[in-house]
Amino acid sequence: MPMTDSADYDPVCGMQVHDRRWVTTYRGREYVFCSEGCLALFRRDPALRLSHKGERARYDLVIVGGGPAGLTAAVYASLQHLHALLLARDLGGQAVDTSRIKNYMGYDLVTGPELLGRFRDQLLAQKYIEHRLDEVLSVARVADGFALQTRHGCRYEAPAVIIATGMHRRRLDVPGERRLLRRGVSYRLVHELERYQGQAVAVVGGGNSGIEAATALSRLGCRVTLISSGPLTGDAGDIARVEAAENTVVLTDHEVAAIEGEEQVNGLRVQPRGGGRERFLDVSAVFIEIGYLPNTDCVAPLVDRNRDGEIETGRDCSASIPGLFAAGDVTNGFGKRIIIAAGEGARAALAAGVFVRARQSGTASVQGPA
Ligand SMILES: Cc1cc2nc3c(=O)[nH]c(=O)nc-3n(C[C@H](O)[C@H](O)[C@H](O)COP(=O)(O)OP(=O)(O)OC[C@H]3O[C@@H](n4cnc5c(N)ncnc54)[C@H](O)[C@@H]3O)c2cc1C
Questions:
Q1: CA atoms of 291 and 261, how far apart (whole Å)
Q2: Model confidence band, residue 59 (pLDDT cutoffs 50, 70, 90)
Q3: Ligand 1 mean position, distance from CA 359 (Å)
Q4: Ligand 1 geometric centre to CA of 329 (Å)
Q5: What confidence score (pLDDT) does residue 3 get?
Q6: Does ligand 1 lie within 6 Å of residue 136's CB atom?
Q7: Does ligand 1 have an atom closer than 6 angstroms to the CB of 66?
Q8: CB of 86 shorter than 6 A to ligand 1
Q9: In sequence order, what are the beta bridge partners of 225?
Q10: What does the pLDDT look like over 225-277, one tens digit per residue?
């Protein structure tokens, strides 16, 4: 396997292991594992697991993504006894650091680490599903299904694949944005709010999220500049409220040219859209709220997507190619929520199970490459 063989990391899946529940010794060295499943895989062929050569393997189903959709799909695949593999950059997804989740059934209030930790534990307790921390670089069609190539040099094949890769925050792509991330530049208002109480701050984004952020900051006594590249497009009542706030200036039809500061943000350069004189805004923080983009790079050439780049899916989460399914925030499904992503993950796994069984019994086929 290409992952590290340090004793703190599971040599099978690459996960960091914090307790020593599953341990074995091989050639005088101790190895720890995240689960009984990974330990069993290691014992079957330790040399292979430590070889650091790109793995080649075939499964009934490969699931890509370790957020609520992918984790739920994995558990549902295991419950159907599918020989399945979960590939994910991390186990948890977008909401893993969130401190307050108030809309997941069964909990009045739960933190991201607790809820998604439970999702993860449920995955690790499953018998039939394997998992690896790895990034899928491409999904291609082959004669009998799909081939997935990963960052760690592995190649996996399966007749069915579920894409559950979620979304990421859209970035401005201006000078200073990356360098000053978490040093005044933020995409997650919720964690940063109180730190900037009473200060001059900027919010970039004229949709619902930007307006909400500007309103919350203005209530905290911040002097807020809300910058939007076009007119504000949120809820009419919210727009009226933000425009009426005494400590808020709204700059529509303006774009950010650069974010400035050495160790910490100390200002922002903006200019009218389409050109014009740049202005410097003296602010100590910039909150960027310009939406999300679906993570579809690995599969984009294969599937039909809508104008927002989301994968178009049918009632059973099937995408535009037989054998390919998608679930969660990456799809065109309405409502980007944990509970919806989890539900779609379950549905996609059930549909993939039907597809795989039909194919095994010769009643369905995946077309070869065009
Ligand atoms: C700060 C914040 C707070 C939120 N709070 C709430 C809340 O309180 N309640 C609520 O219902 N929703 C909340 N949400 C929304 C919720 O997090 C999402 O709707 C949900 O996480 C979507 O799940 P998902 O599995 O579709 O995608 P994600 O959670 O985005 O997971 C995607 C997974 O795919 C992996 N991945 C991506 N590309 C690849 C690749 N090429 N190869 C391998 N792995 C890949 C990622 O690493 C990740 O593991 C919040 C979101 C954010 C950002």
A1: 24
A2: very high
A3: 31
A4: 7
A5: 45
A6: yes
A7: yes
A8: no
A9: 202, 249
A10: 999 999 999 788 989 999 999 999 999 999 999 999 999 999 999 999 988 89
Q: How sure is the predictor about 369, in pLDDT bands with cuts at 50, 70 and 90?
A: very low
**CB-count exposure of residue 99 (10 Å: 0-12, 13-18, 19+):** exposed
Atom of ligand 1 lying closest to residue 339 CA:
11
Average pLDDT of the residues in 177-188: 90
Residue 311, φ and ψ in degrees, nearest 5: -75, 130
Span from the CA of 68 to the centroid of ligand 1 (angstroms): 7
In DSSP notation, 205-269 reads --SHHHHHHHHHHHHTT-EEEEE-SSS--S-HHHHHHHHH-TTEEEETTEEEEEEE-SSS--EEE
CATH 3.50.50.60 is right for the domain spanning 56-168+295-360: yes
**Closest residue to atom 39 of ligand 1, CA basis:** 165
Mean residue pLDDT across the chain: 92
The alpha carbon of 243 and the centre of ligand 1 are apart by a number of angstroms equal to 32
Residue 183 Cα to ligand 1 midpoint, Å, equals 24
The CATH number of the structural domain formed by 185-290 is 3.50.50.60
Q: Whose CA is nearest to atom 7 of ligand 1?
A: 101
Mean pLDDT computed over 290-316? 95
Closest residue to atom 41 of ligand 1, CA basis:
136
How many whole angstroms separate alpha carbon 91 and alpha carbon 109?
Answer: 21
Distance, CA of 219 to chain centre? 31
Whether residue 66 has pLDDT greater than 50? yes
Q: How far is the CA of 19 from the centre of ligand 1 (A)?
A: 26
Q: What is the pLDDT of residues 1-57, one digit of tens each?
A: 444 444 589 999 999 998 899 999 999 999 999 999 999 999 999 998 998 778 899
Domain-wise residue ranges, the chain: 1-53, 56-168+295-360, 185-290
Asked if the domains 56-168+295-360 and 185-290 are classified in one and the same CATH topology, the answer is yes
Inter-residue contact 300 to 317 (CB < 8 Å)? no
